[in-house]
Design goal:
Layout: E1 5-9, H1 14-18, H2 23-40, E2 44-47, H3 61-70, E3 76-83, H4 89-102, E4 107-112, H5 117-121, H6 130-146, E5 149-153, E6 158-163, E7 176-179, H7 183-192, E8 195-198, H8 203-219, E9 229-237, H9 241-254, H10 260-264, H11 277-291, H12 293-298, E10 302-305, H13 307-321, E11 325-329, H14 337-351
Parallel strand pairs: 1-2, 1-11, 2-3, 3-4, 4-7, 7-8, 8-9, 9-10, 9-11
Antiparallel strand pairs: 5-6
Helix pairs in contact: 2-14, 3-4, 4-6, 7-8, 13-14
Length: 356
């Protein structure tokens, strides 16, 4: 394994917006969080896109990341993930290329198909065709970045000699991350030599899935180097183990219950994941997270404690899984800005140097 890199995960949960006077105040607060991450030595900063969701109110990620890019210098920036079925692929390709230009090559491009049916229903999109839509959109995006023009007559999008500009700053295009949960997703990433990311499964399951991806990648005889792996985890650091637990346990125990009921009570209603084996496992993890703090810790879903304790947790976890980027979510659930920033500072000043 090479050098371990660290990132900040900024989920923009709905409660941030509802508690603020204006959305502008929230955006500014989070931009300042990204600036602090850069100052402390985190290499990258990730947000997530959701539509019609209690999970995140960051519905126009490229607009926001452009503001972050203009307020930082070296911090790499990414959306983990863009939900491709919600986007016209040419428009998204051009917006991302422009963001890559404005940031002078700092964009990380994370993609996925989406997992919540209620997000799709409100756009009159067929949730069960999302993987086909993802594949078609992804193909068009890569062509838009690498060809002078795009002609495409597909099932979901049609275009005739579209001239796409600008091209990305990074050549041939920004790094591509596949947010993978199912075996087909890992196989797709392995076949196409793409990075992979994970954020929900237990350490045991992540280890198995990353090993599956690595075996598949080797079978394709890519020239190398091997693409990267990314793991997002809840992270909280305090002066002692006891204080860290006291501060973060309430947030961890309620984070999975923050919004589904609100969505369920609307006219259109709530529908979650499909019933595939991968999503059944995710549902099990969500249930257990709501019941037990120990489940979070024992399964590596949260790294909590004093700086020394968190260092040991990371070392043990990385030895088991073998990831390249640890993405730290210092806001798992309802966590005050002051508490999240305190944890980030302690992590940056007392944990991160141990891996340099």
């Amino acid at each position: 394994m090479g050098k371990l890199e660290f990132a900040v995960w900024d989920g923009f949960q709905a409660h941030d917006m509802t508690a603020a006077d204006t959305a502008a105040d929230v955006y500014q607060m989070h931009i300042e969080e990204a600036q602090l991450a850069e100052k402390l030595g985190y290499e990258s900063y990730y947000i997530i896109e959701h539509q019609n969701s209690y999970v995140s109110h960051l519905t126009a990620p490229n607009v926001y990341l452009t503001a972050v890019a203009r307020n930082t210098t070296d911090l790499r920036l990414g959306v983990m993930i863009y939900q491709l079925p919600f986007h016209h692929p040419i428009r998204l390709a051009q917006e991302c290329a422009m963001l890559d230009q404005l940031s002078r090559g700092r964009l990380e491009f994370g993609v996925g198909a989406g997992v919540h049916e209620h997000e799709f229903m409100r756009y009159n999109l067929d949730f069960f065709q999302r993987r086909e839509m993802f594949s078609e959109a992804f193909d068009v995006i890569i062509k838009a970045w690498t060809q002078d023009e795009v002609t495409h007559h597909g099932k979901y999008w049609q275009m005739d000699e579209v001239f796409t500009n600008p091209k990305p700053y990074q050549k041939p295009h920004p790094p591509v991350w596949i947010a993978a949960h199912s075996e087909p997703s890992f196989e797709f990433a392995a076949k196409n030599n793409y990075d992979v990311s994970q954020n929900i499964d237990t350490d045991e399951v992540v280890s198995e899935k990353f090993d599956f991806w690595r075996r598949n990648w080797k079978e394709y005889n890519h020239p190398g180097p091997m693409p990267r792996t990314f793991l997002m985890r809840a992270v909280h650091v305090a002066e002692t183990d006891e204080k860290a637990r006291e501060e973060i346990e309430p947030a961890l125990m309620t984070t999975r219950n923050l919004g589904p009921q609100y969505i369920a009570n609307t006219r259109v209603g709530f529908r979650g994941n499909d019933d595939s084996p991968a999503n059944q496992e995710l549902a099990r993890v969500f249930r257990e997270q709501s019941k037990s703090y120990d489940f979070w810790i024992e399964n590596g879903l949260a790294l909590v404690g004093s700086p020394d304790t968190v260092i040991k947790q990371i070392e043990k976890q990385r030895e088991r899984i073998g990831y390249d980027i640890l993405c730290c979510n210092h806001r798992p659930g309802v966590v005050s800005t002051e508490l999240a920033m305190k944890s980030m500072r302690m992590f940056g000043e007392e944990v991160l140097p141990a891996f340099r």
